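FORM 7B: Structural annotation worksheet

SECTION A. Query
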Amino acid sequence: MEQQLFTNEIILSWLQYFAKNTPIDLEKVKMLDITRKNKNVIPTVESHRAVLVFTEAGNPDIFYRMWNAGLGDCEVWYNEGSEPAGEVLHDKVSNMINRGINASAGMLIVNQNARNTYKIGMDNHNFRRGSIHYVGSEIRSVILNKMQVGRQDDIVVISGESIAVEAAIIAIEGSVTAVEYNQDDRATMEDNIDHFGLHNIRVIDHVDEASMKDCPVPSLVFLVASASMEQELALLTKINPKISVVVYTLDFGVAAGIGTVFEKYGIRDTEVIQISVSRLNAKNSFEQEPAPWIITGKAEALLN
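SECTION B. Predicted structure
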């Protein structure tokens, strides 16, 4: 069994400490123990008014990352020790960017501007540019709707960088394995992971049994159709014979022939939609964006 640094008793003692020493209403506080699993502090703080974060010593840039993500006005309540005792201090994140975590402890982060829910379909300017041409935010919203990502889902995203980022933010109790074949795209993906403060994404450079060996068994895969699509589906349906599949393609031939491919790997309940988005430009005329097909299905174990 995994050794817990913060047991139930310790967590309760920190709750009592902050309840007695801060004016914060802790009724709806979100607790986040980043010592036990790969948890995402920044998205959690963005979407909760009060977050009680449990962390271990040796996190030198946690406040700088929060400030860099636009959370500089958040207020941090903390003490100088590793025990819930003594004087409570508080300051804005913007004043703490050069300060790290010196002891295993709890700290209360208050965000008065928190959103109640995560809004899918982030604007593309939020992502690091690098080598990647991102799909439009409206189309990404539809893709994420079709993916139906759950909080605990383990997901594989193949050549879908912005999809991987948003899926990781939604799947706060799960994980994302991002497959990037291109070296420059992998570097941009890593830059985005750092930018958004995500700890539940791992990046690999191809799909085979060796590279997937230590990855969580995925419940869902999103992939951009390519020459390697059948190889990817063959392995992933072998790893999880009941995996859900979402395919993105701009190729009508791929969309028209996807039923045959899906049937080969036992993927049923196929649905194909096409998304068309037009934008009004400065000349008061509409510009048509690429209109992809989004194909969904769910694998069923093939009978021998």
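SECTION C. Observations
DSSP finds nine helices and 14 strands in the chain. The two ends are 38 Å apart (CA to CA).

SECTION D. Sign-off
Analyst initials: ____
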